[in-house]
Design a protein that fits this description.
5 helices, Sufe protein. Chain: A, alpha+beta
């Protein structure tokens, strides 16, 4: 059963589309599981001033993408990197356990878009490895807690 907020963000998603000349673009997901999220960020003076998304997937994937864009707008890059899948799910008043992977995708889409921004600007990622350009979709294990 989905919360009213999940249904609202699914039926009336916020920030759908793409940003031309985005400062950061991140795409995560897997065609095998059917959920793919692409997030676009516009960043000015280290603050995310706009975010848009395109998602191919279920209603929960659309809702988590929509909520994630709302959560990052107005935040600094560092603040946005602190947004967790649990925070996205909580902002939607919860998700069914079988759909929690959608909130993982939302978190990873934010991080992938910020990694892209950092790479384009010669900045180091916060992972201590100093290589924001190394993130690959295949490295993301968004289904590790999901049952078959």
């Amino acid at each position: 059963m989905y919360s009213e907020k999940v249904m609202d963000h699914f039926m009336n998603p916020r920030n759908v589309g793409e940003i031309e000349n985005a400062d950061g673009v991140g795409e995560v997901g897997n065609a095998k599981c059917g959920d793919i999220m692409k997030m676009y960020l516009k960043i000015e003076n280290n603050v995310i001033v706009d975010a848009k998304f395109k998602t191919f997937g279920c209603g929960a994937a659309v809702a988590t993408s929509s909520m994630a864009t709302e959560m990052v707008i107005g935040k600094t890059v560092d603040e946005a990197l602190q947004i967790t899948n649990k925070a996205v799910a909580e902002a939607l008043d919860g998700l069914p356990p079988v759909k929690m992977h959608c909130s993982n995708l939302a978190e990873e889409a934010i991080k992938a878009a910020i990694d892209d921004y950092m790479c384009k600007n010669g900045l180091s990622s916060g992972d201590g490895k100093g290589n924001a350009c190394s993130r690959r979709c295949d490295d993301i294990h968004h289904h590790e807690n999901e049952e078959d």
